[in-house]
Design a protein that fits this description.
Arc Repressor Mutant, subunit A; mainly alpha; Tetracycline Repressor, domain 2
């Protein structure tokens, strides 16, 4: 028996490949932009090659053409956010140490706003235009202050390390109740230290923990800058 199939029988409808909208081409900038979006909404730990491949509707292997590994990806995210650092004080009027402190405080605040990124910044090594602009700005202000080139070359590294470590420490403590209680316990221990066994602690008293975080941070930068200016460097 033969079954006659009508030519009018509808065929399964499949979207033609030609009718599908073309996906935007992958690029380093597009990958980094997606990484920043994921970090802002889900946190840095979710910024992985697999997660970004899902975000960009592609395979993880295709991302490695543009980004070597997750560490390089995190460094690229850091580089992108360094564009938020206020470098206006570099060319502004005023005392150079105060302007340098303002730049470093702005850098610290950018990291402080992204706690996980602050920790990553301790080992991440960005090398893009935003990072170079930050380093150039710090070196320009050290040069304006008469800091010898060799000391400035090493000093910029120390200044950024101090800023990064401060942001990482403070960002880890801000939402940690245990860390806050540890801080309160330390304040009490210092305040209650007996003069007989700890005379210098007792003499300084509340001043050991005085000042706002902003005041203490600016003082730290001033101290490091003054040390950089006054400490000769060994010949290499």
């Amino acid at each position: 028996m033969f079954v006659i199939v009508s030519s009018m029988t509808p065929r399964p409808t499949h979207e033609s490949r030609r009718e599908r909208p073309a996906k935007p081409a992958l690029s380093h900038d597009r990958i980094v932009a997606a990484a920043v979006r994921v970090m802002r909404t889900e946190g840095l730990r979710r910024v992985t090659m697999r997660r970004l491949a899902t975000e960009l509707d592609t395979g993880p292997a295709s991302l490695y053409v543009y980004v070597a590994n997750t560490a390089a990806l995190h460094a690229a995210v850091l580089e992108e956010l360094l564009g938020e650092v206020d470098l206006g004080p570099v060319a502004a009027p005023g005392e150079w140490r105060e302007r340098l402190a303002a730049v470093l405080v702005s850098y610290t605040r950018v990291l402080f706003a992204h706690p996980e990124l602050a920790h990553s910044a301790l080992v991440a090594r960005p090398a893009g235009p935003h990072y170079l602009a930050l380093v150039e700005g710090v070196l320009a202000l050290l040069h304006e202050g008469g800091v010898p080139g060799g000391q400035a070359a090493w000093g910029v590294d120390v200044l950024l390390q101090v800023a990064t470590a401060t942001a990482a420490e403070q960002s880890a403590r801000q939402d940690d109740d245990a860390a806050k209680e540890e801080h309160h316990a330390l304040v009490r221990a210092l305040a209650e230290a007996p003069p007989g066994t700890h005379p210098r602690i007792a003499a300084l008293g509340d001043d050991l923990t005085s000042g706002t975080p902003h005041q203490r941070l600016r003082w730290i930068f001033q101290a490091v800058v003054n040390g950089t200016s006054a400490t000769p460097r060994e010949a290499t």
